[in-house]
Design a protein that fits this description.
Elements: H1 2-9, E1 13-17, E2 21-24, E3 29-32, H2 38-43, E4 46-48, E5 53-55, E6 61-67, E7 70-76, E8 83-84, E9 86-87, E10 100-101, E11 108-110, E12 118-124, E13 129-131, E14 141-142, E15 161-167, E16 179-183
Parallel strand pairs: 1-16
Antiparallel strand pairs: 2-3, 3-14, 4-11, 5-13, 6-7, 8-10, 9-12, 12-15, 15-16
């Protein structure tokens, strides 16, 4: 953690792609995950909720099932792979992108007031997104694409911030020019997960 803070204080750029939960794609289960980055994020005016954003605007996945002697392959919508099209059109990171698939993304909560950090949202989920609030309670839960994942009556609707950048983070004493880019998932950079 101290090494990451040193990067910010030195005026350099830092990318943090943070998973909110551990997703096991073999068992299709997700469990709580503590990355240890919470204090650094809060110090810079940001926190991640320990749940996933689900979105009707999503990346479909192929699912195979065995039925007797047959293996069936279906392509099904998967709300846990939101596709963000509400991207910052003028920022160098996102200006040339039409969309961005962010599998298993956590919603970001930005707060500049206490830290002086100025956050710019780079990617946001669609208005048809929602959260599964019960997942924040720390339980292990299913993330199977074959289970219904429609929003329930108590699931708060979106849109939600999925990626943001802060110019000049690190607080007092930090050299100018630093940037902190935070994405609510490491899934977009992980081999084996769909990216487009």
């Amino acid at each position: 953690l101290a090494a990451l803070e040193d990067v910010l204080l030195s005026g350099r750029a830092l990318l943090l792609a943070v998973d909110p939960r551990a997703a096991d794609l073999r068992a299709f289960m997700a469990s709580p995950l503590d990355t240890g980055l919470g204090p650094l994020l809060r110090k810079n005016g940001l926190s991640l909720r320990a749940t996933y954003v689900l979105d009707a605007q999503n990346q479909p996945v192929q699912v195979t099932q065995r039925r007797g002697y047959f293996t069936l392959a279906n392509v099904v919508p998967y709300p846990l792979f939101p596709v963000a099209t509400d991207l910052h059109r003028h920022h160098p990171v996102t200006r040339d992108l039409r969309s961005l698939s962010l599998p298993f993304a956590a919603p970001l909560h930005l707060s500049s007031a206490s830290t002086g950090a100025v956050w710019t949202v780079l990617a946001r989920s669609s208005p048809r997104s929602w959260l599964r609030s019960v997942w924040e309670k720390g339980y292990v839960h299913s993330i199977s694409p074959l289970e219904p994942l429609a929003p329930g009556p108590v699931d708060p609707p979106g849109p939600y911030d999925l990626a943001a950048v802060s110019e000049g983070p690190g607080g007092p004493g930090a050299k100018p020019g630093g940037r902190l880019l935070v994405v609510g998932t490491a899934g977009f950079a992980r081999a084996g997960l769909p990216v487009g």
